[in-house]
Design brief:
alpha/beta, Arc Repressor Mutant, subunit A, 41% helix, Rossmann fold, 14 strands, 3-stranded antiparallel β-sheet, 21 helices
Length: 588
């Protein structure tokens, strides 16, 4: 991010939303909308469906105006398939075709399947400071809230069919009742993704899909509909034939490409975002723009298409397959402002990669560097804006770590100490030194100043960042990649040292406590080859010295942890303490 200049997409979108609200004569808050189908684990791709409108709605609030961010839970969608990775029995497939709110919770902890997956997502949104109004589509449909809109769509079914027909392809078939040729894998934003446009058993088009009153599934086909009496008749694959008066009974829903524009008009939506697959020619948004105007008498929202979110190079996530990382997973290792920053710093049409590997340390470094630039007045207007939005919503900043030690340092300390709290506190106190210290984050050029007035009193001052580092080490770093400090000196390795190597180790041990701090130990490990060359510790590094430094690092890692690499050497030394270092290197 450092040095990257770009336009403020949030401010630009908020400008447009405010202007559109004035043009429409909106008397009250402008409405920004999101939609998610809780068909499985709600993943980091789904989170972008929330965060893009959130930043826009929140920017409107920062300007002293009213906004309302609604999340439509598409929990009246059909249960499409049993997600892999959840360990559910094959018998669970009997629920396919039923509304998500009619499928039992796989763990028996919540009212239904949908609520099982909503609950952790709600918790993550609260942790991220996202203010949202939830709307259950199951509740809206079954309560009759949309009854007039459904009756209108049924009366205008031939006009709707004509609009849809304008976008059908050869693959979808021409004429009434033909399916669409555009792939409808639009699960990132919510909505029914099966591409069923409401064909009836006899070929006539209907934009409404009843749920069977016997088996509860949507494996139905409309047989007939009477505009005068609103009597609807259907058949179901289960063998049942039935019907009801649509003006009196609420037991089905509009098909997705009619449902979405209906809600724009019903909610008065001014702004919405959607996955890029919503925005292709003939997709839901393209069709919806016409249907909301021509059928429902409303206006399409201002719209931003967002690109996909991946993890460690993954191209796209699918909540229906299970296993994709969730916002809760990310918040275990990333502080909430960093997650907000990841979603706000890129334009929506740019892809995002949320890393769970070694890149986590780099993310923290970049975030900390941004904070320093903002605090020192060295940042530009865009950086100031994105930092403020990331730190928290308009209502106020999110909780922060009082003592934000570099994440790489905390991770190394947790690793080396095997998570022992007493040892962690000892090392962090050594890092503090009772005053202002310069803490080296790497063995090259990255540094970060930790400003302290007094020594850290307890580990609570290093949280939540310390907990994030602990979670990352224990969950995402393989056991064979963690640090295992030798319990006894490597006698064979020590005996095989050359005279030059023995001299280097002796110099290190001799000067260990000259400056027992991370800064002092950093200077020492880089300085030993300089001392051997008869140079002062602050002598500039030459290519020959850099080669000697790398060789010394490898030697020390082998003697201390039995590997060629490990956590940053100064941090490792600080964690071990002078007595243990002397013990492991005593025979040198």
């Amino acid at each position: 991010m450092a040095g990257e200049k770009q336009a403020d997409w949030v401010a630009a979108a908020a400008d447009g939303v405010i202007a559109e609200g004035k043009n429409r004569g909106v008397d009250g808050p402008v409405v920004c909308a999101s939609g998610i189908s809780p068909s499985g684990p709600i993943h980091l791709g789904n989170l972008r469906e929330i965060m893009v409108p959130h930043f826009v709605a929140d920017e409107v609030r920062r300007r002293g105006l009213e906004s309302r961010h609604v999340l439509s839970w598409d929990d009246y969608d059909r249960f499409r398939k049993v997600p892999a990775g959840l360990g559910l029995p094959e018998s669970f497939a009997e629920h396919i075709g039923r509304p998500l709110t009619s499928v039992p919770d796989p763990c028996g902890e919540h009212a239904n399947w949908a609520e099982h997956f909503k609950a952790p997502f709600r918790a993550a949104l609260q942790q991220l400071g996202v203010e949202i109004v939830e709307i259950s589509q199951s509740q809206m449909y079954t309560s009759g809230a949309y009854r007039e809109q459904i009756l209108l769509a049924m009366r205008e079914r031939h006009r709707i069919d004509a609009v849809l027909g304008a976008y059908r392809t050869k693959n979808g078939g021409a004429g009434a009742g033909g399916g669409e040729g555009v792939a409808d894998d639009e699960g990132d934003g919510g909505g029914d993704v099966d591409g069923d446009e409401g064909a009836a058993a006899g070929g006539e088009y209907f934009p409404y899909k009843p749920y069977c009153q016997v088996c509860g599934r949507d494996s139905t086909a409309v047989v007939s509909y009477d505009d005068g009496t609103t009597d609807l008749r259907y058949t179901c694959a289960c063998g049942h034939s039935g019907g009801f008066a649509l003006a009196e009974t609420d037991h089905g829903k509009l098909v997705w490409k009619v449902d979405w524009p209906m809600r724009w008009a019903y909610e008065g939506v001014t702004f919405e975002a959607g996955g890029v697959d919503h925005s292709s020619p003939g997709s839901s948004f393209t069709v919806g723009q016409r249907l909301v105007r021509e059928i429902f008498g409303g206006q399409p929202p201002l719209y931003l298409a967002y690109s996909f979110v991946g993890t460690s190079g993954a191209a796209k996530m699918s909540g229906s397959t299970g296993g994709a990382p969730t916002p809760g997973d990310a918040l275990e290792i990333l502080e909430a402002p960093i997650v907000r920053w990841l979603y706000g710093r890129r334009r929506p049409n740019q892809s995002i990669t949320v890393s769970f590997d070694q890149e986590v340390g780099r993310l923290y470094d970049e975030w900390d560097a941004l904070g320093r630039r903002v605090a020192s007045g060295a940042s530009d207007v865009w950086e100031q804006a994105i930092h403020a939005r990331s730190a928290g919503p308009a209502a106020g900043p999110l909780p922060t770590t009082p003592r934000p030690f570099p994440f790489r340092v905390l991770a190394s300390v947790v690793d080396v100490t095997a998570g022992n709290d007493a040892q962690i506190l000892r090392i962090l106190r050594d890092l503090d030194g009772g005053g202002t210290q310069a803490v080296t984050q790497s063995q090259t050029t990255q540094t970060q100043a930790i400003q302290t007035q007094t020594q850290i009193a307890d580990l609570g001052e290093a949280r939540p960042r310390l907990d994030c580092a602990r979670a990352w080490i224990t969950t995402y770093v393989p056991a064979d990649a963690r640090t295992h400090v030798r319990s006894e000196p490597d006698r064979e390795g020590l005996d095989a040292l050359s005279d030059e190597q023995r001299e280097a180790v002796a110099l290190l041990v001799e000067r260990l406590e000259d400056d027992w701090s991370l800064e002092g130990l950093t200077a020492l490990v880089y300085g030993v080859p300089k001392l051997q060359a008869g140079l002062p510790l602050d002598a500039p590094a030459t290519p020959e010295l850099k080669t000697a430094q790398r060789a010394l690092f490898t030697l020390l890692y082998r003697l201390l942890v039995g590997a060629d690499t490990g956590p940053r050497l100064p941090t490792l030394l600080l964690a071990l303490g002078p007595e243990r270092i002397r013990t492991l290197l005593a025979a040198a």
